[in-house]
Amino acid sequence: MSKLNNDIFSIIIEELPRDSKTLFSCLMVNRYWCKIAIPILWRNPWCYDSINYRNKNSLFIIIFHYLIDDIKEFITNQRIKLPSDSKQSLLFDYLSFCRSINANTINSIFSIGSSLSYNQFFMQNKFYEFFMKKCPELEYLDMRSIQHRILIFPEAKVLLESLCELKCDTSINSSYFKKLSPFCQYIQRLIIVNTYSKPNYGIVMLIEAQKNLKHFEWKDDFHDDFLTENPYEEVFYALEKKADSLNYLRIYFQYVGGIDNTLLQEILPKLYKLKILIIDDYLFFGEVQLEKLKLQVYNELEVLSINSNRLNVISSIIENSGRRLKKILFKSYDITNREYYNSFDESSLNFIRKIYENCPSIEYLSVAFSPSKEHFTEFEKLLKNCQNLKSLLIIINNIVTTNKTNEKFLENGKILLEILIKSAPTNLKEIRFYDDFEFSLENLEDFLEKWKGRPAISIHTSDSIYEEENYEKLINKYKGDGIIKDFKHSYNIDEIHYQQI
Fold it and tell me: Structure pTM?
């Protein structure tokens, strides 16, 4: 029984790596909990947002402990001052658990030891040399801002054969990637930050070498307004050859003049196994390209997020999908602005219909529509047909009405709450409200009273009215009764919208 309990406990702790606050608290319970949590924390100790690595002396001390014999003479000559507790013995062999490298974080940690670049570089190089000998297996590598030629270490090639995830940027010399390609061929997640406005042919070679690439992200992050060379073409033609395995694609292109934007319309249809497709802001299409985009067919698609685009394009992709969609996300201000001169009412009605006709498994949904009787009727049909809905972002937008009054907003809010009470599926546990509606105190109280017996609801809103004392009192009452799980108000529109995957 004791063994079974230990196994179950270990499985539970294994689910916490991204919940750093809870995982760190396990260290403080007792020695047994600590022994289970430490190997999990140190599998990728550079990834926790809650840590300020530049000021974390304890991490520097741990790493320095492994290097002290090799660099004792160096630190003496360079007059590097060590923390007073740097000579204490370690409770665990921490680096034996590590399966990852993050070059930027390691740079930050070694800046604690010395402010001089030469000293930092020397100690970092000694760390990589030791790590390559100590680490049994390397699964994750973030080589952005890397300054060291880790491939010169004899153990590096063997370690890199097991690499599953690589983050890099295009400013790294092309030859670095060319040297990686022969033995680093089983990367499943490849994330590229495009910081350089010219092609990097080493990255092209690295992509071509992969035998099981499943996840690909590309994010532009450079400052040139116009490009003289196309940094995308060869990369995405190489990506096209991975269509048999690729199931996740996320892309962010900056708007750049002089570059033919038909490339994606040529490549996207060939990536037929995509389950997740995310196209972020600043990807602009002309009318011809829009028509091609509407023809995309993804039978296995589960997540669709296309910002800076049009509802009719998203609707067509939904219609051509394999009825497996679980998440459809977009930002309201992108959609409504682009639809303003393109029949928003008609497009939004069609969008709602495509959802309830083609998405029986939908769980997370952004939906935008005008507050007309027909729109509310169709929205109610959506709620009745999509019984797996867990979370809704609802945008009501009076783009064709110039007389936007508070009374009209309150009326929209009342109708919306009545529909939710009447038709919302039992799985619905979160609602995000944005734009042209408000809830009166009486209508909100009536809604919450009638929500009793359902799972507790989380509500996110962009309206500051809910900070008023009478609203806060009402909200706190229903929090205490277990009707409201969470109620958040934010002036930051992006916090109301879903964070991308």
Answer: 0.87
